[in-house]
Amino acid sequence: MRQDRRTRLGILFGGRSGEHEVSLTSAASVIAALDPGDYEIFAAGITPSGRIARPSELKRMLPAELLGRIRPLAAIGTEASVLRVASGAPEDPPAAGGGDGGPEIWFPLLHGPYGEDGTMQGLLEMAGLPYIGCGVLASAAAMDKDLAKRLLAQSGLPVTPSMTVFARELEAGLGSVRGRAERAWGYPMFSKPANLGSSVGVHKIRRREEFGDAVRDSARYDRKILIEKGIDGRELECAVLGNDGARASVVGEVISAGEFYDYASKYVSTESRLEIPARIDAATADEIRTLALRAFAALDGSGLARVDFFLDRASGGVWINEINTMPGFTPISMYTKLWAAAGVPFAQLVRELIRLGLERFEERNGRTMSHR
Fold first, then answer.
1. What CA–CA distance (Å, rounded) separates 274 from 96?
2. Can you tell me the distance from the alpha carbon of 347 to that of 265, in angstroms, rounded to the nearest whole number?
3. 40, 7 in Cβ contact below 8 A?
4. Quick one: which of 194, 173, 178, 141 has its CA closest to 301?
5. Measured between alpha carbons, how far is 203 from 184 in angstroms, rounded to an integer?
6. Which H or E run contains 337?
């Protein structure tokens, strides 16, 4: 990537998941924040049905004032790519990519299933295209909260106590599932889809009467549901940046407008706020930073991730809640704010993510694929 011209960056956004709207906001935030003098921005949208958006559709997915900053694409990849995915609309113009003046690297600003879960990462690797962020394995493992907890626990890391149930178990015996959870830790507890983010489908269950509606709603989004012990804790977050030898940011705290940091508190309310750095002692901050890096390494992360923690108010113990391999890039998102507080402003952060993505792409392509 030469430094004497604009970087050709592809933004991939939208998607099939329940976080489609969040992805649109993330993409708009990134496009608005990048200097047009430094970046030539290509944009490919994915509709809620999972189809590559036609340019006319893509333009409706972004604010009108940003349309002059982008070049709409109707395909991911080029005719020369190993794989090319297009909208298939005959009126669409050819989409540039790779070595013919299109994106040098893609930024898959997709949250949730069919984007953050390794599926899009696999497509980009099949097409032979560089991209920002974690690879297939880390993305898939982190998206499945049940699997991620198992891997982290196996690595000796403290994860929030939980049990995993399947939607079919709720249909066959909701009372039995509720009884197991009550015997394990009682109320309050939380239910959440195993494969989703942005607190979509997450419920705090305060008493027995709320259990059925909560877990059934969580099951609307995934066949696998986590029921977690309710921890009276402060919500702390730490950002990770790098490939091998990654580094951790300062620690921030989420001060939620609601009882917990649910979807409305994240994206609707204007009263939620972030406190950076968090008001915690140096030893606790160091512990969280160390745990964040260990968790990132345990899942073989690359590029970026945000690791979320609970700090138990009573015991002072630290629990890993979740790992997000493509955290939000909205104006109120913690990831970019944490790095800004650590002395890495937005433009520099994007440049570093591009460098890391190209570094990992070159490393992967440099490996021998067959025995001769």
1. 40
2. 27
3. yes
4. 141
5. 18
6. helix 334-341
**pLDDT tens per residue across span 131-142:** 999 999 999 999
Residue 72 gets the label, from left (phi > 0), alpha (psi -120 to 50) or beta, of beta
Question: CB–CB of 283/372 below 8 Å?
Answer: no
Residues of the chain with pLDDT under 70: 1-4, 78-84, 86-101, 197-198, 257-271, 331, 367-372
What is the reported pLDDT for 372? 62
β-sheet bridge partners, residue 45: 13
Separation CA 290–CA 305 (nearest Å): 14
- What confidence score (pLDDT) does residue 95 get? 47
pLDDT digits (tens, 9 = 90+) for 222-251: 899 999 999 999 999 999 999 999 999 999
Helices 136-143, 119-126: inter-axial angle, 10-degree rounding: 170
d(CA 159, CA 268): 29
| In contact, 97 and 104? CB cutoff 8 Å | no
